[in-house]
Known about the structure:
75% of the residues lie in helices and 4% in strands. It has helices spanning 2-21, 37-43, 45-82, 89-143, 164-177, and strands at residues 32-35, 147-150. The radius of gyration is 34 Å and the shape is rod-shaped.
Amino acid sequence: MQFRKLMMCIAIGATVIAFGTSNGFCADVAKIGTVNFQKIFNNSAAGKAVKNQITKEGRGMNADLEKIQKEIDELQKMLKDSDSGVMNDTARENKQWELGRKINEVKALKKRFDRKIQELQVRLINGVKKDVLEIISAYGKKEGFLLVLEDINIVYAPQTLDITDKIIQLYDASYSKK
């Protein structure tokens, strides 16, 4: 009889220990988040400002190209009209040489403008990305994230892991202070 009581107490004790302390030894669930940099760039105030600045710069460059293109069109028209015999051969050759020079000038200017726009894009976008990475890092540490990944290479992740909207909110607040 005493043996039975002893076995019963051991069984009850083991059950209490097994169920009562098992939660204490479990690890916390890893907190993981994802961000979409394209969405941050498209929807944040700083991203929109960068796009506007690049667009404004591009429009100015296009205006310069259009001005030279009009000069080329006028020269082509003048040469076409001169085919009727109004212009002598030397004048026609000079106009053709000037036309060739203007065409080459437009090509060189376009290349230079394209390179300038590309450099501006890289510089401004890298600045946005640097600022965003700092915000993500601070937010991740504050909220206890184990990982924050860019969603560009993620095949599947639940929408609940996406912290992009929160990062945009924090970035806009930070950008407005600047």
